[in-house]
Design brief:
The chain is built from two helices and four strands, in the order ββαββα. It has 82 residues and is an alpha+beta fold. A four-stranded antiparallel sheet has the order 1-2-4-3, covered by helices on one side. Strand 3 and strand 4 form a beta hairpin. The two termini are 15 Å apart. It comes from Hymenobacter ruricola.
Length: 82
């Protein structure tokens, strides 16, 4: 579930292992390129965290962030979580 905190949309995912987490990030990267909106993310072993906000709009949450969040959720739907 995405939460809006500190002018950003945030969500964390936990996968079975690093390889799966990285495969997920690779798919998300393709979606980010397609939408021309690139997220901040962190990846440590099997955990991935996103923070979405639009720099061009003064670092606030915009429709672009919600579109990217939906795209990330669509990618995530193809994975099994821990």
């Amino acid at each position: 579930m995405w939460t809006e905190t500190d002018n950003s949309l945030r969500r964390s995912f936990r996968f079975a292992d690093f390889k799966t987490a990285f495969a997920f990030l690779t798919e998300v990267a393709a979606e980010a390129e397609r939408l021309d909106h690139h997220p901040w993310f962190s990846n440590e072993y099997n955990a991935v965290e996103f923070r979405l906000r639009t720099h061009d709009a003064g670092n606030t949450v915009t429709k672009r962030d919600h579109r990217l969040a939906a795209a990330i959720d669509a990618v995530a739907a193809r994975y099994t979580f821990r």
